[in-house]
């Protein structure tokens, strides 16, 4: 009867290359694959009942697959948390002063367009776009019909669009 150490040595010799290739396909990195393959053999060797397995190579591949999956999860988690390498050739993704001013001007323009709406249309517009209410919920709240809500929202969008276009072209404010 052969010893456990002899069986492990034969298993390593027979499957090391295939196992590394298997892990490399899953991780995309030869060095990581070599490390995880070695870790798989170490974990397999520490098993108290490893000698009684019917399919030791299959179990070894399962261990290696799980190690590769755990590695990929760690890398994925790290990438989500880490901003990555600083690239001196690309500008910061933060908005520059010009973009901040333009965004504020756009926000003010939209706010003015909404404030210029007739009161009932403005209320429905805000309920729909800010509060996230449905046509039916707005109709119940304002004691009207969903069709009326649809009309007012369509009208509000047209008036806002006209207001913004007039402001962008330097013209005077459109009449409600």
UniProtKB/TrEMBL annotation:
It comes from the Bacteria. Residues 11-77 form the RNA polymerase sigma-70 region domain. Gene3D superfamilies: 1.10.1740.10, Winged helix-like DNA-binding domain superfamily/Winged helix DNA-binding domain. Keywords: Sigma factor, Transcription, Transcription regulation. One of its GO terms (biological process) is DNA-templated transcription initiation. GO terms for molecular function: DNA binding; sigma factor activity. Residues 108-160 form the RNA polymerase sigma factor 70 region 4 type domain. Belongs to the sigma-70 factor family. ECF subfamily. This is Sigma-70 family RNA polymerase sigma factor.
């Amino acid at each position: 009867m052969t010893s456990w150490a002899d069986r492990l040595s034969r298993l390593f010799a027979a499957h090391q290359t295939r196992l590394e290739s298997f892990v490399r396909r899953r991780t995309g990195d030869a060095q990581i694959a070599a490390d995880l393959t070695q870790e798989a053999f170490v974990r397999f060797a520490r098993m108290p009942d490893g000698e009684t397995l019917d399919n030791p190579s299959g179990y070894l591949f399962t261990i290696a697959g799980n190690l590769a999956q755990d590695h990929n999860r760690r890398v994925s988690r790290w990438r989500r948390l880490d901003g990555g390498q600083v690239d001196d050739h690309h500008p910061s993704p933060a908005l520059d002063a010009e973009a901040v001013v333009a965004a504020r001007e756009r926000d003010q323009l939209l706010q003015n367009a909404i404030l210029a709406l007739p009161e009932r249309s403005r209320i429905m517009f805000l309920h729909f776009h800010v509060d996230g209410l449905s046509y039916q919920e707005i109709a119940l709240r304002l004691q009207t019909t969903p069709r009326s809500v649809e009309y007012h929202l369509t009208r509000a969008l047209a008036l806002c669009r006209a207001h913004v276009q007039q402001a962008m072209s330097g013209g005077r404010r459109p009449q409600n």
